[in-house]
Specification:
The protein is of the alpha+beta class and 288 residues long. The chain is 62% helix and 12% strand. The protein has three domains: 91 residues, 2-Layer Sandwich (Ribosomal Protein S5, domain 2), CATH 3.30.230; 33 residues, no CATH class; 137 residues, Up-down Bundle (Butyryl-CoA Dehydrogenase, subunit A, domain 3), CATH 1.20.140. It is rod-shaped and about 115 Å long.
């Protein structure tokens, strides 16, 4: 199975006083670029979240957002967070000793202190557990959505590959006819240019020309590349970079096929191949 680098998933967990929302979205990128958007009170959870994500994802520009919204029921009854109040009191005492002239905190200052109201029932460990569980759920949904998109991309690539195989299959049967026609034309021109009938020299020139325009090797390599791409797609996994390399190889053979062409039909096939290769390359940019 192959995976798209584009996806989105989210999950929500309700805690005693707030709703925790975790979401992941991604777009294509050459490497793994992981960014977090967390409220400051949850910043300590980032290393654990990062560790979970990097075990599942290998490429893509990933954005992980974590939101914490107070529940309506929690707004009805406020209470002081005893732990935060204890820490604030200790800090205030140290500050008064170090700088006696600094005025003390007012009641309003204490009530506005982050985490002072309504958070006493949810510890950081409890928050971490809920956040990790939500992220695991998100990653499962996210991976499933990327797999579904990856299957669509695979179908598109195989369809383009089939079109390329059809076009390449038309070239080989034409080559004997193309070479025979060009041999006659070249023979006539050489006779006219040399003004003598030197059959041996003419045969040498024709042989050299035939070698220059022979595309059997290019057709064989194209066919081998087609088989390798199918194998890569069937194997699955993180195949984006490998497929991108195969597009470079296909493009090289298509260019050579076009440069050797002495027939309008073969030239048309070479141009069609280049167009299909570019279409495949665009899709491969979204594959992990």
């Amino acid at each position: 199975m192959i995976y798209s680098m584009t996806g989105f998933a989210s999950a929500t967990r309700e805690l005693a006083t707030a709703a925790l929302n975790v979401e992941i979205r991604s777009v294509n990128h050459r490497y793994l670029d992981l960014q977090f958007r967390l409220p400051e009170e949850l910043r300590a959870l980032e290393p654990g979240l990062r560790e979970l994500i990097v075990t599942k994802l290998q490429r893509g520009k990933i954005e992980c957002r974590v939101g914490l919204n107070a529940l309506p029921s929690a707004q009805k009854s406020f209470g002081l967070n005893a732990e935060v109040l204890k820490q604030l009191r200790a800090l205030s005492e140290k500050l008064r000793v170090a700088w006696p002239s600094v005025p003390g905190l007012t009641a309003a200052d204490i009530l506005r202190w982050p985490g002072m109201l309504g958070a006493e029932t949810v510890s950081l460990d409890e928050m971490r557990s809920a956040c990790n569980a939500a992220l695991v759920e998100v990653l499962e949904e996210f991976t499933a959505s990327r797999a579904r998109e990856g299957e669509k991309l695979k179908a598109v690539l195989l369809e383009r590959l089939g079109s390329m195989e059809e076009r390449v299959a038309t070239v080989a049967p034409r080559m004997p006819e193309v070479l025979a026609a060009f041999r006659e034309k070249l023979t006539a021109r050489l006779h006219e240019a040399m003004a003598v009938s030197d059959d041996e020299r003419i045969r040498q020139e024709i042989t050299l020309f035939a070698n220059r325009v022979d595309v059997d090797e290019e057709l064989s390599r194209l066919t081998a590349h087609f088989s390798e791409i199918k194998r890569i797609l069937d194997k699955g996994g993180a195949v984006g970079k490998r497929l991108d390399f195969m597009m470079q190889e296909l493009n090289r053979e298509a260019n050579t096929l076009g440069s050797k062409s002495v027939d309008t039909e073969v030239t048309r096939v070479a141009l069609d191949l280049k167009l299909l290769i570019e279409q495949m390359r665009e899709q491969i940019q979204n594959i992990e």
